[in-house]
Specification:
The complex is a heterodimer. By secondary structure, chain A is of the alpha+beta class. Chain A contains six helices and eleven strands. In chain A, the strands form two sheets. A six-stranded antiparallel β-sheet of chain A has the order 1-2-8-11-10-9, with helices on one face. Chain B has 25 helices and 51 strands. In chain B, helix 8 runs parallel beside helix 9 and helix 12 packs across helix 14. Chain B is an alpha+beta fold. Chain B is elongated. In chain B, strands 8, 9, 12, 13, 14, 15 and 28 form a seven-stranded mixed β-sheet that branches. The chains are: A alpha+beta, B alpha+beta. The interface between A and B is large, with 64 and 67 residues.
Amino acid sequence: MNRTAWKFDTPLEQAGLAHSVHKTDGHELSLLTSITLLRLRSLQTPAELQASLHGSGLHLPQLPNQASGQDPSVLCLAPNDWLLFSESLSAERLQQLLEERMNPRLKALSNQSSAYAVFRLNGGIAPWLLGKNCGLDFRKGVALGQHCSRTRLNHVPAILHYHQPSGGSKPYVFDVMIERSLAAYSWQLFLRQFPHAVESEQLHGAFYERSKLYP
Amino acid sequence: MSQDYRLQQGGQIDRQQILNFSFNGLALQGYAGDSLASALLANGIHHVARSFKFHRPRGIYSAGEEEPNALLETGEGARRVPNNRATMVPLQEGLTAKSQIGWPSLEFDLGRSLDFSHRLWPAGFYNKTFKWPSWHFWEGMIRRMAGLGRAPDEADPDHYEQTNCHCDLLICGAGPAGLIAALVAGRSGLQVIIADQDEQFGGSLNWDSCLLDGSPAGAWLATCLNELQALPNVLLLPRTTVSASYDHQVATLLQRGHNPAWRECLWTVRSRATLLATGAIEQSQVFPDNDRPGIMLAGAVRHYANRYAVAAGRRVVISTNNDSAYQTAFDLRHHGIEVAAVIDQRPAVPAAMLQQQHDLGIVVYPAAQIIATCGSKRLRGLCMQQAGKRQRLQCDVLAVSGGWAPRLHLLCHARGSLQFNTQGQAFVPGKLPRGFAVAGGAAGDTTLAEVFTRTETSTIRLCELLGASARHVHQPRVSPDNLQSPEVASIPLQASRKRQWLDLAHDVTLGDAKLAVREAYTEVEHFKRFTTTGMSVDQGKTGNINAFLALSSITGRAIEDIGTTTFRPPYTPVTLGALAAGHTGEDYQPKRILAAENTHRSLAACFEDYGGWQRPDCYPRKGESAEQAIHREVLRVRSCLGVYVNSPIGKIEVRGPDASEFLHRMYMNKVHGLAAGHCRYGLMLNEGGVLIDDGIIIRLAEDHFLLNTTSGGASRILGWLEEWSQTEWPRLQVLIDDVSAQWANFTLAGPRSRELLQQLDSSIDFSAGALPHMQVTQGEIAGLQARVNRISFSGELSFELNIAASCANEFLQLLLQKGEALGITAYGIEALMTLRLEKGYMHVGSDTDGETIPDDVGWGQAARQKSEDYLGKRSLARAASAEPHRRQLVGLLTLQPEMAMRAGGHFLPASVKRAPAETQGWITSAAYSPVLQRYVALGMLRGGRARLGQTVQVYDAGRIYPVKIVPSCFVDPINQRMRS
């Protein structure tokens, strides 16, 4: 048996859940099935890092909760702690990109592509659905264009990445990264919460439009 | 029963929509727009409840959430809700309501005997009386008699929701002040949430007869609401009570559903500022027998007439100590309801008021007071005294007003202070917490014009503080000009042999207050607890001021010196369903599933929860019991081959130039000498030298380690490593990374495990020479990248295979398929625990506790041999750590092989024949060994290692039996099998 024969199960398939897309009234929750996630930690100074990654097309944001780039995007989870996320690059390619530029003794790079499930939440429902599970203020992230946060969604550790895909007209796109073992639980939880979130969005949707205080 | 007390005109009810409901089985009718209380009053029903302590007949007293009497059960079966305030329940078709105190019936209640013998039950009687034989002997009976409603026996069938929300300004209350504030803040662009507990926004405008800009208040209200609804940055939440306010501008709001899909939703709102526009609550008056059905707050009587078109009675007498009640007289006359008299306790009644009443033909008795009332289940009349002259007045409703107390419960929740306002005889806002503002009646404003003006000013200031520029809004002109003075007279308490009720919700009388002072409960918080005034769900809404005034009067201290008690959240009761929303049933707590979940299910695994993980206990085959399956799995591993899925095991990578030094300090065992490609068992201690985790330290490269921790301790140990790295040794260049979820872990154990691996297409040499015990390697297995650890927790030849979690299902199927010819079996946690017990391996958490140090589990020598410093070393040097009578881990066998042992049994000295006796330790793990065909156990026994060969008694749930103390390893003590 060689590698091409392997079937890489999604976190939902592993739990016996057949569906990985849920749509209601223009709002969509879906599981991203082909993803690359790399966790990068470094002992180098920010200046050294930027210098070493010059020309790679990667920009490492320096402040926690900042995010940059489209594909790959880089999420700063904590000082000197990043998560690189791509839907098009393989883990090997992304690893190579970093390995050849960074001091090998001063970095920790681990492939976490199998560790997480990434749910994409599209539409105005996003702040209402996520707001049912955590107390973060989503207005600020929207105003900044791109943003990430580590939080707990109904006690489940999660990384939230707000971004606007290029050319996208939808006001909210959140990628919700959840540890693989908790993916099925969270998926089913979101589906149960969907109707109330849709109702909230229909009743109060405009409330979460861009605030004047976060220009 | 027809709606005899319904007025012919007026009200905000839909007379076309008749709603049927029942009260205590009596079929009644009301209209859409009614509350349960207004519908009951429209049908002439005042007597709806019995009092909490003395079972006295009580009637509807107010029109809002401050209702102290009319607490009813609504709904039936699983949807029965106790303690619902009739004043707050919107009338619905088919609603059933019942009174909740009174046996055999509300009308004839045997509990009333407590009232007739009330002298035996003064305040605090239960603290003094029911001591013999013990309080618990009486507790059940007292609780049965005193209880407030019954919770349904069935599971709640309704669905509840929770949500979080952020905003710039949270406005609590949508009365005139709240609406003006929302207009100002909404127009300024701030994100505003305005919540009101009522179905309809408007507060007092819904029942006030004033004109705004020359039109009824409803017209202005509609315009205002239209504008607010059109503002996208304003969120309007009717039927929503702000139930609590916490630090950092966090508030919880309970929204009652309008959608059958959910019943209630609990909002947690984080705002940048909070404006309290909660209005004020009318206070009761204290006079003899002031609790009869038919005695109501004056504002409530007006409310029922104006909003619901309900006459609370045919002939009304008003008693007041302030101007506000005169408006009730005016409105009642306007509706054609007879107002027999106004009894004004003030010596000097404003001339304008007197003139107004005179014009209406209403008699005013200045400087008068009520000295008695009559009527049992409905007020029939009263006796008043003026200038020493007594006079009887016939009436069926007595509308009382003792002034208005600002609703400041939320301010108190947020630790704002209150100060007493002598003019208004009420507590008003003192020092406000940061980000808080108070407006309208809650700020002590008494006239509508004042409310509009001052609220606008304070909201503009608040907007500016929030960084928004706000402009003035049009303030409606209020007419007629309100003559109302904010002054509330302080009325001396009467000396009377009859009871005068301070707190209707808890049956607290003036006599109780006097008793509390006689017993030296003079501090307000002590006084509250002794008398129970202002406690529980009521939180002193209508009774607190009178209780404090009584305390002031009795002690002779100014009320400013007495202060007030602490209002506690929630403001009104919050259902458990709303609090638990999202955390029940399937969502009670997160469930972690294994990456190969599907395959486990196909193998008919029995799942159990282990620290949130759903893990297979065992894999019973058809016709097999769980016990039989466990024994089969153990025997198969010992004799042949088993596969165990250990994916939850913690996998933490530590890298960096100082990784070795860091781990050398973190672990009790030596790490520096560990060569790359080798692994070592390690114990982790805390500062006290106590064992907190064990696992395998794997050196993948010079500066790259992988730690295997216990499954349940992975995140805890990760945090522990990070804490020491970041706070104690920040100069060490170390990077810590949790890769637990990335790798699925499969343990192949048994004499034929190598055989199976050699059948797989792999780049790894699995021979004993190439991969000996306690070494690791990396390579490809069947095309997958794998990390292979030659370690064993079963005592058998064992390989731990780590592959990407996304391939777990298929990889497990591959192992089972390839291993079928070799007799492979999947084994679960129970079999693993039996295997490790036979081998004598401890399990941290089962065999250790918060006192266990390395020497207790046989690792003392290793701890002493490590000369360098490590975490916990200093504590191990304490005398207590070397004490010879510490509990030590030993093996245990019963004297008869067939005899069973269970974990938890306590060791007793041989001389002791029965429990209780001082324990010498306990059995920590026990299981039947199918290999040895007897029970084996591990236990922590005082001085255990020095007692090998002796017997000790075990006490287990009433049974005492002897066991022999033996070395802890029962199978393969020379490790031949796992090193093979």
